[in-house]
Write a structure and sequence with these properties.
eight-stranded parallel β-sheet, signal, single chain, about 290 residues, Pectin_lyase_fold/virulence, Right-handed parallel beta-helix repeat-containing protein
């Protein structure tokens, strides 16, 4: 027998239904997920546009590479996909890749002010732009178990709020900030790897002019003229339980690991070791960094 509790003549079940009816529709049910078949770029653009307008999360096919051969539209010729203006989530259960394959130059993703993008198990590859060949972020950007690789103009150009979690920046290049250019706002790098990136001037792995926090991460095998691992132009950079190793600066005493040109760099329970030609520059600029 099913019991119904009644108070004041209205059953608990009916009361619950009444309460739910008074809530906005978005709070009573989850937004429907939108699956994009492998290789269907038109459907991918439509799904992003739908998400911008309050639609559901975007799910990409596992193991699929979505090859981007042209910019989004003539009016948005700098980006492969529609600008991120709303709350957009793109994920894949088994991992998927967004890859530019074109003689035309364009970045993959652009998060504008007020926009929010979350990537989960997504690889962003082969984009090219003056700022953020892979991703330019002026809003909110979160990467989880994702990879940004082989982009030109920085893997990520950040002037908003960035969180990099269990993710990788690999093989990106730029004039400054090959892997990550953190020019404004804030960036958290958590349990991630930044390696094999390069810059023709400063910051092969990272260039920072804002607020940067690196936790439980490794910055290694990056290359630049100054600051092979990190070039701190301004702002603050804090490393905790992290490693900066095996990076190279080609300038004499250029700070293979870290070059502090301005601001302040702090290495808490972190190791800056084995960088070429030295670990930190200028000498004594980073407390606890030797050589």
């Amino acid at each position: 027998m099913k019991a119904t509790i009644r108070r004041g003549g209205i059953s608990a079940a009916a009361g619950l239904g009444l309460c739910l009816a008074l809530l906005p529709a978005g709070q009573t049910q989850a937004r429907a997920q939108v699956f994009v078949p492998c290789g269907d770029i038109a459907a991918l653009k439509a799904a992003v546009t739908n998400a911008n307008a309050g639609g559901g999360p975007v799910l990409l096919a596992s193991g699929c590479t979505y090859t981007l051969t042209a910019p989004d539209t003539p009016a948005n010729a700098d980006d492969a996909l529609p600008e991120i203006t709303g709350n957009v989530q793109i994920s894949s259960v088994g991992g998927a890749t967004l890859r530019r394959d074109s003689a035309q130059v364009f970045r993959i993703l652009n998060v504008v002010p007020g926009g929010s993008l979350t990537l989960n198990r997504i690889t962003v590859r082969g984009g090219e732009a003056a700022q953020g060949g892979g991703i330019r972020n002026a809003g909110r950007l979160g990467l989880y178990r994702s990879v940004v690789r082989d982009n030109t103009g920085s893997g990520i150009h950040n002037s908003g709020t960035l969180g990099l979690h269990n993710s990788v920046l690999l093989g990106n290049k730029a004039s400054s900030g090959g892997g990550l250019a953190n020019v404004a706002g804030s960036a958290i790098v958590n349990s991630s790897r930044i390696y094999g990136n390069s810059a023709t001037s400063d910051g092969g792995g990272i260039v920072n002019a804002a607020t940067l926090r690196v936790r439980g991460s490794t910055v290694y095998a990056n290359r630049a003229v100054r600051g092979g691992g990190l070039f701190n132009r301004a702002g603050t950079a804090t490393f905790a339980r992290s490693k900066v190793l095996g990076n190279t600066a080609t300038a004499p005493a250029g700070g293979g690991g870290v070059h502090e040109a301005g601001g302040a760099v702090t290495a808490l329970t972190s190791a800056v070791i084995g960088n070429v030609p030295n670990n930190c520059a200028p000498l004594g600029s980073v407390p606890g960094c030797v050589g």
